[in-house]
Amino acid sequence: MKLRSLLIIIALAVSGAVFGAPESMDVYDLTHTRKALDGTQKTLQKGWDEVFLVSALQGLANRKAPSLYVIWMDADTYWLDKMTEKGSWMEKTALNTISGLEELLLRHKDCYKGAVIYDPNVPATSCVAATVAGAEDLLPVRYDTSPDSLYSRLVKGSGLLKPVKWLLCEDGASMFTGKGKIPGTDRDSTGSAKCDAYIWAKENYLDKGRCSKTDMGYYIDYYFIKAPDARSLSNSTLVNLDFQIAGRGFVFDLSVWDDETPVDDPDQPLGADFGTFKEILLSQYRRSKGEMVQISGFTPWNLKYTESRLAGGSHGAVETEWHHAELLSNYNCYMDADALGSSDMANASVFSKYPLKKKYPQPKAGVRELRSMGLIDKDGYVRAANYICLYVGDYDSSAWLYQKLPSMWDDPKRGWIPLGWAVNPTLARRFAFGMDYMRRNATQYDSFVAGDSGAGYINPGSLAEPRKYSLLPDGTEKWLKHCKKWYSRFDLSVTGFIIDGHAPKMTDEIFDAYAAFSPDGIGGQKLPSGAGVWKHAMPYKTMGDGNKFDDAERIAEYQQGELSFLYLRNIQWKPEKQLEYVNKVKKHNPDAVFLGPHEFFALIKYYYENGEKCRYTHVNLFKLSNIEITEHSAMNRRSDITDLFGGLNGEVETSAALFEDAADGYAHYVEFRTKKPAAVKRVVLRLRSDSGSDNRSVKRFRLLAGDSRDSLKEIVSEDTTPPGQREKYEFEFPQPVTAGFFRAEFIQPDVKNGPRILELEAYEE
After folding, report:
1. Which residues pair with 24 in a beta bridge?
2. For the segment 697-748, what is each residue's pLDDT rounded down to a tens digit?
3. Which of 127, 162, 298, 538 satisfies CB 3.0 to 4.6 Å to 339 for a cystine?
4. What is the largest CA-CA distance in the chain?
5. What's the predicted TM-score (pTM) here?
């Protein structure tokens, strides 16, 4: 028997077969629903109805094993081809094309028990219907008695779908009214039909243990149908629901703001959405016993909850994202952030069944490699250069990875330069096949780090007590346990970008947790300093600006000829564009050295842990380590004056110093002394105003020098009214000016914001 089993295993390995691949799988083309859209509400509703029903059917059909695949967009065809090519997972799987909805329903009739009917007059009931569908093996159908609707066709007509659960009265009247008692509960109404529907679902499904303990879905409800562009179902995220329904996830769509009513329910009591949101999260927290919970989805900012033209709110899109992340983090929840633009992902119920390896090791550089690269000399000195690392993001969303990976991985220039792909390991929960595909096809220059903020998008500062919104116990240990598991599987030891948003800074205990599961480095916003090493263990670096392609020349000039570390984030740039950016920087600065993330953080750690020894060719006399700042005028509340001298400590714009807003003619200033008298021959000032305006500009720059404040004399006074967005000014003196005390003044023009100073430098030559 043992010999026979061994022969079978060998035969499977040789044939390329993979355990878990189905013998056959149905394929259903949903693209006809998109092609049929003609700009009318009728075709949009018809498309919504079929896509929603098929996605639910797919979730139920694929609950145990892959059985149904849908074609919704180009990415679906791409990944189906990859899965079925020679040597791949489904090489031997027979694909059956299904041509009609009725045929599809009949082929999979054993996986569902009937229909859940939801109320188009209470859009939230569509999300509730998704929850009920997963919990009770039902298919969601919108109540619509018009002759050609799915309800008339499948429920009232053919009888193919028996109505099992009603989320409205059978005569079409709304069951949830926002008045009296919430139906099926002992609770008084919240005053909102929308919130009542979610409370009903919470009490009857979430609280009773009929939903997943590990997964929830945050996707837009039927309100999407009111979108002014009735020619598109993209970003409806209906196809994402197969994963939630397969796993019995609780699905909802609520506002995170308590200071305004949402556009989809303007008459609700103030804060009703927010209160209901917190109730749902608290219920899930108790059911999961505080373990980390994945919430897939993202704020539908174009239609709800923000200041976007159609969304009716007063909060910015990024502000809303950050508040959303902060709220989830308070309850030990993290996002798989299917954000707009690339928010749709079909077939996760198929990809999630791919059998991942237990370990995915990757090569990592250390001090030995840094020496062999010539970055550390025989005496232990670091070579003075501008060291730059590119954070390739943002892949904190399965949907983004699913849609964008084909063009990224097939780019012929991938593998030409070192790139740190910031892919959250938890994306393997929905896109296991894609995660394995990346590792199998990586080049020597493709390395992997965790994206924001580790094993899922979270604000880690909100794990610590006191937790503003939940008042729950500290969640740091739960996060540590969760991240250790996922980092271990994918051999991750660098966390590319920790997003703190508006949440509190990380505590020492949270930094210690990151040092335990991310020992080779972290990038982030609110770090102890611009760069350093946490407790002689974990290197860290703030994420810098300069993340636009047009910033390449300015990045090339940043502290040129000195030692500097720049960590730059870009979003969804193809390798070809990354290479073009690198070449543009190196054209203006041949000494720029681009490193992969492991080499980059290893060099930071070596430099700061070994006496900061460096071989310089020429030195900026006004470098932060060479001066002491004695006094300065008021700064923007989240900016830092040290960034004017090469620091990277501000929260609002690292590597730039922003002064407080002031009136026309006000002299913003900074006074500082050098550690020893400096012979200044050349001064360099770098400014940047806002794009398309003179906001944050400077109309005159003055520099005064002397032995003390009392002996200051003007050595520079220059009109710096900006002819463009970015400016570099150089002032060279006939003879060096030797001084030990300086005062720099930046005169405010008649514009809205205080000046932005990128850098003030001085040199002997």
Report:
1. 94
2. 999 999 999 999 999 999 999 999 876 666 889 999 999 999 999 999 999 9
3. 298
4. 95
5. 0.84
